[in-house]
Design a protein that fits this description.
- With about 525 residues, the chain is of the alpha+beta class.
- It has three domains: about 240 residues, Roll (Dipeptide-binding Protein, domain 3), CATH 3.10.105.10; about 160 residues, 3-Layer(aba) Sandwich (D-Maltodextrin-Binding Protein, domain 2); about 110 residues, Dipeptide-binding Protein, domain 1 (Alpha-Beta Complex), CATH 3.90.76.10.
- The chain contains 16 helices and 21 strands.
- The strands form five sheets. Strands 3, 10, 11, 12, 13, 14, 15, 16, 17, 18 and 19 form an eleven-stranded mixed sheet that branches.
- A hairpin with a 3-residue loop joins β10 and β11.
């Protein structure tokens, strides 16, 4: 084992050197402009001062938003921006506790119906007042989206009743245990009907919400500028401006944090953790989150429609060592589709383990003794690219010749939704903390494509179990169903289970009030400078 680990580590170093030499041909890192519309510093008062007050918070993340229409996408970079602009009926705090949001209270009328009382006097960024009609409009529009069906699908669109301007009743088609938690999802941000109608197809570039920050401008591929909403109904944001920069290269993001080009950097890469920790001008935040990373197969394409091939590749990849090398102690190896801090996660699942001889036997049994050619898709995330390169090398041992394709984030989401890929590397965040969110969208046969099931996996028993767990109000019944479903998924191997993640962010030392949400959608309204 020690010898194999040293060989793998040597390969990693070689891959790193190669990546440095050819990275400029694969990835274009845009040079972000300084905000032109929003000043970064404002004098304390009219008297001369040597200590200007910084009033623009600059945040760096690893990809640009795909859309700021919460019904048009469900990716993390977009959700992180939308969190600042929109608000939901229900909030879920950092402890995953449900709290009033735009709904000041809610009551369960029967097993299918909830009544929500809206907070009065809430204004959208266009000056319109929030009404129950906006909530109904939002839900009906969300039901038409292919991206978020797993979030809103249980709602019965024909049984949404506006009682008055501030009261609405919402029913589901069947009992749905995690409904209230789903109303806290960023995709359930409440929209203004007038704003959506007026913007038409351009709404995703011109969002209007009720949140503490309003949209100002978007330079695609570069940055998004937000401004404090002065008529906000709650506690006002502590900074006037927020700029969210797209810094896809992880090292560049850390350098920008060190130089002061950004005040907060999301997703510090494992190799930079010590570098940030040891810098007295920076603060490192680490918290286990609700994410998991995986290598997926397109199970509708040969040869990945063959269970034996999928199992062979699981045995052929030394995932424990790959995780050790790539993530360097951040997060932990995964043995199933749910992380350990998600309720009803089956932590008794047995990992496939690294067994080349077993992999070769399965390949021979499947009729692929001489291997085949394939592609591994990834976006320009350094850890994913590293995993793809190591997997590419290890798969040669069982005759598989794999080409690594690094695809731009938007095209990556579209391509994997359309089934254009063979193998791919991606992650998922169980945003609500409920296993329904972490399993239904990814493995139910009704959710193939953009909704989440990008492996195009289908199993009648898994469907049955996930449907049963959704409608049961008995936690014991739900837990048993989820654990059985996870066992079947493990055995049928639509994924190579890879990694359970951490939120790792860096801030400048003068940044205060920032905390990380387990779902990765961090609020910025309480952040200020000391």
């Amino acid at each position: 084992m020690k010898k194999r680990f040293l060989v793998l580590l040597s390969l990693m170093l070689i891959f790193s050197l190669v990546a440095v030499g050819c990275g400029s041909n694969e990835i274009e890192t845009p040079v972000a402009e300084e905000p032109s519309e929003t000043p970064s510093e404002t004098p304390v008062d009219s008297e001369p001062s040597t200590e200007p007050v910084k009033d623009t918070l600059v945040v760096g993340q690893g990809a640009d938003a795909k859309s700021l229409d919460p019904h048009a996408t469900n990716d993390q970079p977009s959700s992180r921006v939308s969190k600042q602009i929109y608000e939901t009926l229900v909030n879920q705090n950092e402890a995953m506790e449900l709290e009033p949001g735009l709904a000041e209270s809610w009551t369960q009328i029967d097993e299918l119906t909830y009544e929500f009382k809206l907070k009065q006097g809430v204004l959208f960024h266009n000056g319109e007042e929030l009404k129950a009609s906006d909530v109904k409009f939002t839900i009906l529009r969300a039901l038409e989206s292919s991206h978020i069906g797993h979030i809103v699908g249980p709602i019965d669109g024909e049984k949404i009743e506006v009682i008055d301007d501030y009261t609405i009743r919402i029913s589901t088609k069947d009992p749905f245990a995690p409904l209230i938690a789903h109303f806290a999802h960023t995709a359930m941000g409440i929209l203004n009907e007038k704003a959506v109608t007026e913007a038409g197809e351009d709404y995703g570039q011109n969002p209007v919400g009720t949140g503490p920050f309003k949209f100002v401008s978007w330079v695609n591929g570069d940055k998004i500028d937000l401004e404090r909403f002065e008529e906000y109904h709650g506690e006002p944001a502590k900074v006037k401006y927020v700029t969210i920069r797209n810094l896809s290269d992880n090292t560049t993001r850390t350098i920008e944090l060190e130089s002061g080009g950004v005040d907060i950097a999301y997703d510090i890469q494992p190799s930079d953790v010590a570098r940030v920790e040891e810098n007295s001008e920076l603060t490192l935040l680490r918290d286990m989150n609700l994410s998991t990373a995986y290598v997926g197969f397109n199970t509708e394409k040969a040869p990945y429609d063959n269970l034996l091939v999928r199992q062979a590749i699981n045995y052929a990849l030394d995932m424990d060592t790959i995780v050790d090398v790539v993530y360097e102690g951040v997060g932990a190896p995964s043995n199933g589709p749910l992380g350990p801090n998600v309720w009803a996660s089956n932590q008794d699942l047995e990992q496939y383990g690294f067994n080349i001889e077993k992999a070769k036997e399965l390949m021979k049994e499947a009729g692929y003794e001489n291997g085949f050619k394939t592609t591994i898709w990834t976006n320009d995330n350094q850890q994913r690219m590293d995993i793809a390169e190591i997997a590419q090398n290890q798969l040669k041992e069982i005759g598989i010749e794999a080409e690594v394709k690094v695809v731009e984030w938007g095209a990556y989401l579209d391509g994997t939704a359309n089934g254009e890929h063979d193998m791919f590397i991606l992650g998922w965040v169980t945003v609500t903390g409920d296993p329904d969110y972490g399993l239904y969208a990814l493995f139910h046969s009704s959710q193939m494509g953009a909704a989440g099931n990008r492996t195009f996996y289908s199993n009648d028993r898994v469907d049955e179990l996930l449907d049963e767990a959704r409608v049961s109000a008995d936690p014991a019944v739900r837990e048993a169903a989820y654990k059985e479903a996870q066992k079947i998924i493990r055995d049928e191997a639509p994924w190579i289970f890879t990694w359970s993640g951490e939120n790792v962010s860096g801030t400048r030392a003068n940044v205060k009030g920032f905390s990380q949400h387990p779902a990765g959608h961090h609020k910025l309204s309480g952040v200020y400078f000391e």
